[in-house]
Amino acid sequence: MHLEREKTPFPHSPDENSATTPYLSDIGILALVPDEWEDTWQVRHQVLSRLAKYFYVAWVGPAQEWRKAWHPTEEQLPSAPLMRPVPENLMIYRPGKLLPKLYKPRLLASFLDRKRLAQAAQLLRDRGCKKIIVYLWRPDFETAIDRVGHDLSCYHIDDEYSFSDTEQPVTEDERRLISRVDQVFIHSPALLEKKGSINSHTTFVPNGVDFQAHAAARNEPEDLTAIPRPRIGYVGVIKSQLDFDLLVTLASQHQNWSFVLVGPRNRLNERDSQLAERLSQMGNVHFLGGKPVELLPAYMQHMDVCIMCYRINGYTKYIYPVKLHEYLATGRPVVGSPINSLSAFSEIVTLAQSTDEWSEALSVSLLSEANTKERLDARQMVARRHDWEFLVQVIAATMCARLGATYQQTFEQATGATPK
Asked: pTM for the full model?
């Protein structure tokens, strides 16, 4: 189903100034996700928080293994900077220590899983939901299809879950899940090519951006003010998919440039951890740590060039970086590695692979010609077309269409969306 985008911004709710119900309040989404609401902001946070404008949503956090459930460590508790408000119509379900995750014996493990799912589904039914959509965000959650009653099952593929640097075939478990669900959403062109033919009900929904949040002018963050320009900035998780060898070389060759990395440093293998430590010792490299999601646009806006310096391998071939459209929404010049998802935007994102190509691309991006109003507008125009509000509207419309003509018609009448 394709929709014409509305000319005016889609409202947060029918009435911004009062408590509201979703547009289709008899539909509930049981979202099985691999992380807590307070964890680092991910695509699923973006999608589910906005789906709560259309339906009731239950965010089903992962059950803890029984040892961790009964004896949580300090690291397991939400950290204060990541605490964030819960959107209206979205409920957080936390299984608690009385329903921990078990692996053996299987009958008890299955019983506990069914109880968790039943409790989460009851949150939706208590709000009057007559139709339940099971929305899976990992292959591991396939058993939910058999363990909780539902009217529609969806699987959202927002990563290559092998996480392998070398090309891997689709696993039998994931192939079975894709075949079983009623609807599949896939976020990257390469994954669509790899997995999109398994289920005929597959919809491509790329990653997007909160356009207004990233385009509206922000004050320069205090911890950026002392860092000299030009600033070459990366904003995101500091992980092993980044080309740290490249960063070390570039920072060494261009000591008059400041390289600024904003984000939590984790998911690093031993070698990359050593390279990151080497980077942090360089005078023109600045690691600013993780920041609350609402502050990230200000950091992007006050870079001179934003970068996506990924290694090219069997994993990055399939990614679709969320920061792509976030960067573009700020209007800043963007340089990235020639991975599949960025190649489609080569007219507005400069692609570079070798160290020399990166040096040249960054140098050109710092010139005034790369920062004209025309170039800024072109970047923001692409980002605007990928606003999360529109992309999530497509997901909601697809779900209603799969529930049947009555719900499709109700959706169109309630939201003013017009099919084409």
From this structure: 0.90
